[in-house]
Amino acid sequence: GNSVTQMEGPVTLSEEAFLTINCTYTATGYPSLFWYVQYPGEGLQLLLKATKADDKGSNKGFEATYRKETTSFHLEKGSVQVSDSAVYFCALSDDGGTSYGKLTFGQGTILTVHP
Amino acid sequence: NAGVTQTPKFQVLKTGQSMTLQCAQDMNHNSMYWYRQDPGMGLRLIYYSASEGTTDKGEVPNGYNVSRLNKREFSLRLESAAPSQTSVYFCASSEAHLYSNQPQHFGDGTRLSIL
Q1: I want to staple A35 with a disulfide (CB 3.0 to 4.6 A). Which of A47, A84, A103, B43 is the partner?
Q2: Tens-digit pLDDT profile for residues A75-108
Q3: What angle do CA A44, A45, A50 make, to 5 degrees?
Q4: Residue A108 with chain B: CB contacts under 8 Å
């Protein structure tokens, strides 16, 4: 079956530091890949997505590239802010007409950014 | 601009009690989902509904039932609550009826404690 593995957290950084959160996946076929963010007390929000190999998703200064050869989708940001403190989830969705967009999630990575 | 609305936000039950969690979306999405979120485990799919009138099991369906009342509403029922069902429950919806690359939109969650 499908699976997503994220780097262990929590991650603690100072403001303006560089962020990388690693994500690797196992899937058959050609899944779509997503990063979701969850702020305290809220539901998940889509941060970015990539639907095919070598696609780069980007939003709010965050980027991730769909690497089929390494089955990875690492999240990066050049300069984090305190407001980026949240839980980040990597997820994949099966391709194909019977998947109905079902998502498989990684375990989540807690990011805390200090001033 | 409500999106996905879940009720209640918090609930405490005693073991053996029953409860229905409500979810409604106003985006005219075909597909709806129920997840549970537990520490260190990400989100796991309980049930999903690809379209009005259909439901199907996800990864962890035991102890739960669902009803897709109409296109807008998708409820989750615990018939006899157990402490292992203490969790945060999220409802989501998407346009991913046939195409897996459409993102899901999440509600703010229901925090459920079972004593």
Answers
A1: A47
A2: 999 999 999 999 999 999 876 556 667 889 999 9
A3: 120
A4: 40, 42
